[in-house]
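Q: what does this look like with xanthosine-5'-monophosphate bound?
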Amino acid sequence: MELAKRPEDMKRITTKELADKFIKEQIAEVRAQVGDKKVLLALSGGVDSSVVAALLIKAIGKQLVCVHVNHGLMRKNESENVIEVFGKELDANLIYVDATDRFLDLLAGVSEPEKKRKIIGAEFINVFADEARKLEGIEFLAQGTIYPDILESIKQAEGKQAVKSHHNVGGLPEDLNFQLVEPIKLLFKDEVRVVGEALGLPHTMVYRQPFPGPGLGVRCLGAITRDRLNALREADAILREEFDKNGLAEKVWQYFIAVPDIKSVGVKNESRYEGWPAIIRAVNTKDAMSATIEEIPYAILHKVTDRITHEVEGINRVLYDLTPKPIGTIEWE
Ligand code: XMP
């Protein structure tokens, strides 16, 4: 990441007209920077990397090579969505890497949250670097760095400690000495979304709620197992479906399921049925530094509970986390 300061007189991008102007300027700038060379991008499907991809496809077309690493910790249908939008609709040069086994094998038996985060972050770089080495003639690396990332780095450089080690791509091995292309590095998140819509990306992608780099890895609490991870993914998909149907998706800042590594006794078909609890988290915040709890109507909680306990193998209870941040962080790990 290149630390750059946002000019004080830079106008906030709030309208399609301003976004179109920004896009035009960036297209010219990127073309001038990279010429006829190839550019590599790690495309997670999050807002930032998606907007960078769409912008670069407009600027340099097939000179952009997108690599989507599926670490096996994506939410339901997330990788499929990336392939659909970028591989099919936008006809991008897209390499899809299913690295599920690499990640889950390394994570087996690891229960300490920071250790899990470090493993996922480091392995992400390994997988991405492996793909980069297979490609020829790449001179540039595009990144979805946005202005808050730069502000955060400046804070860390001043010695302020972070609560958790966040992972976003960075720090590639030395043999991969790419020049950086960071077309949205001076934008705030709301501006990135306006630019994304102006670029014609689907609304659901542009307004996607934040999803941590380590993905479901920090929501499948403790040592990850494939069966519990699958249960988490299915339960999370049900929560999202019900929030969508009931108009909560646009209203609540972030919501998800976490599944701890504990079992309780239940009863199903008149037999003992041991299962994990699914924990609902639904929070509102402005900047993720503090957060309050969304008051989900009871009828929706009942519906979600009913569906998860009937449809998801291995879950026999549903709990609702009422803890604000602070004292709880938004994610459980
Ligand atoms: P916490 O759990 O610290 O999370 O209250 C604050 C916000 O950050 C997201 N989060 C991450 N985002 N990489 C990211 O890009 C990460 O490693 C990461 N960990 C947490 C979290 O989902 C919440 O929105």
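DSSP finds ten helices and ten strands in the chain. The chain has a mean pLDDT of 95.
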